[in-house]
Every structure is written in C-alpha cells, then in structure tokens.
Specification:
globular; 4-stranded antiparallel beta sheet; alpha+beta; 35% helix; Aldehyde Oxidoreductase, domain 3; 4 helices
C-alpha cells in the first residue's frame, strides 16, 4: 500500500503502469485520476492545504480498511496540495484485487472518503477574490453508502 501527499505533479499513466507492473496475482486493476475543474470558467487556481503527518495517517487508515473490506492485493493513493491550476491532476486512486467488483467498489469508497473526509482544505481563487470550498450534500450522501 502506498499513500503519498505531495506538492509535485504526477504522471497518472506512469503511476498506473508502475502500480500494475508484474502483477500476476490479481484479475483487476482500477484507477481514477481527479483533475482541477473550472466549472465557471474563471478559476485562477485551487489552493489545497493540509496538516502534514495527520493527512497521510488518516488516508492510510481508510486505505487499510479498504484492503480488509475488499480483500485488496494493493492500493495506491496520491493527493496533491498547494496551488493547482485548472486541468492539473489533483489526486489518484488505484486498487488491485482478484475480481473487478472488489477493485471498483474499493476505489469508489476511497474516492468518496477523499472527497468528503480526508483532512484537506480547498480555496478557489478567481479574479473576483478567494473563497473556501464548502462540503457538498451530494458528497456526504455518497459517503453514506459505505
């Protein structure tokens, strides 16, 4: 299991290739990469803050739960912090399991957790100013599935 919280960008394709390389013990590898979106067309950057140490520990704990719950062979979670431009990769989740249902469900679970519970704080910066991103009811509802 790998959990990385980093400022640097990452190559999702290379990360996935490294994650899956040589795996003969699984039948499914699932990945998701989130990017910074600019829905209104005026986002200058997204600023993501976190508490080093605490964030990695919280993500590792939920990843450990996913490994047990879905009998995963491996998990990769990457999440960035700092100033990010629209279109930049913000996070990646990859799961490896014997069967696709487990890999998909575990990845979905981890993404829901990262979206609603991981200790990150996001601020959108536009030409009109800056504002913190509030939690969304839809994200909370998605987490209730688990």
């Amino acid at each position: 299991m790998t959990v990385r919280v980093q400022a640097d960008s990452f190559d999702a394709g290379a990360e996935l290739n490294n994650f899956a390389q040589g795996r003969t013990d699984v039948g499914a590898v699932v990945s998701f990469t989130g990017v910074v979106r600019d829905t209104a067309g005026d986002l200058h950057e997204m600023l993501i803050e976190h508490y080093p140490g605490m964030t990695e520990s919280a993500i590792a704990k939920i990843a450990d739960q996913a490994v047990v719950r879905w009998d995963l062979a491996d998990v990769l979670v990457i999440h960035r912090y700092g100033p990010l431009k629209p279109g930049a990769p913000i996070m990646m989740v990859a799961t490896a399991a014997a069967h696709r249902a487990a890999a998909f469900e575990a990845a979905d679970f981890l993404m829901d957790y990262l979206k609603s519970r991981a200790p990150f704080w996001k601020k959108e910066i536009t030409a009109d100013g800056a504002s913190w991103v509030d939690a969304k009811d839809a994200d909370e509802d998605a987490l209730k599935r688990w």
